[in-house]
Write a structure and sequence with these properties.
binds calcium ion, single chain, 1 helix, about 15% helix, five-stranded mixed sheet, mainly beta, globular, about 35% strand, about 150 residues, Jelly Rolls, four-stranded antiparallel sheet, 9 strands
């Protein structure tokens, strides 16, 4: 009887754990909540997956870069819906880099439909990037994506 009670206790414990963890939606590799810059998921690989599960969802990702000699690129691909990306760049002291002139056009990327998104950052003092993925205002649709970055 004691043994059965023990098994029951473990079972109830597992159910409680699953119940608690299931409260917040989490896609593999993405850690919700990640809806603001301070909750950004750190990208430990140069490629990851995420999902915009409701139209108002936002996914923030944090990328740390070593010194780059010419550019850094942030890409969104394998889109299942019309999503968009926006990036914020910071220097080694944590100050936001204000991009000017022609660079401004590359801060946001929103192609139509499920076309890939790409942002090229040419400011080589960039050491930290915050990426925000969300539904395009055009469609407000939900879907999954792969986020990737590279640099040179
Ligand atoms: Ca999110
Ligand atoms: Ca788009």
């Amino acid at each position: 009887m004691k043994r059965i009670n023990h098994v029951l206790a473990v079972l109830i414990g597992c159910l409680l754990l699953v119940g608690l963890m299931g409260c917040e939606y989490t896609y593999p590799y993405e850690e919700e909540p990640n809806n603001s810059p301070s909750e950004a998921t750190f990208m430990s690989n140069n490629i990851t997956k995420g999902q915009i599960h409701i139209a108002s969802d936002m996914d923030y990702w944090e990328i740390n870069l070593p010194p780059i000699s010419s550019w850094a690129k942030v890409m969104l691909h394998h889109l299942t819906a019309d999503l968009k990306i926006m990036v914020l760049c910071f220097d080694g002291s944590g100050n936001q880099i204000v991009l000017s002139g022609s660079d401004i056009a590359y801060l946001n990327s929103d192609e139509e439909g499920t076309n890939d998104e790409e942002i090229v950052i040419s400011k080589n003092q960039t050491r930290r990037i915050l990426v925000c993925v969300e539904a395009s205002e055009r469609s407000g649709s939900v879907g999954s994506y792969w986020l990737e970055y590279s640099f040179r």
